[in-house]
Amino acid sequence: MEYIDCRACEQHMNSFIENSLVGENLWQFLTHVEQCSECFEELEIRYLIAEAIGRLENGESINLRSELYRKIQMTKRAMYFHYFNEDVRRVLKIISLIIIVYELFGFVSMFFGIVV
Known about the structure:
Largest sheet: none
Mean pLDDT: 84
Number of helices: 4
Oligomer: single chain
Number of strands: 0
Structural class: mainly alpha
Distance between the termini: 45 Å
Strand content: under 5%
Shape: elongated
Number of domains: 1
Order of helices and strands: HHHH
Low-confidence stretches: none
Radius of gyration: 24 Å
């Protein structure tokens, strides 16, 4: 996995806030933001501004700092779940292939009279 620098992280901030950052870019972004206090602070400011403007227009209450933290944690959980599912699918494919080869070998052995 490649790591991104602060400049690249800043370029992804608006996409993250708008929920349009996906895949490897999202994972790299989250990893960087959690490790870099300066980028987290910049993200927090941008998130607060974007959400506050929308909420003020709608007259909603504002507790955005905890919402940003929750958004990061929920996104990370979703990413972990996604990668876990991919790993499970790979393992199941390998097991299926092993079973197919085993069954095929048994059929060939039976057909040609080979005793194992």
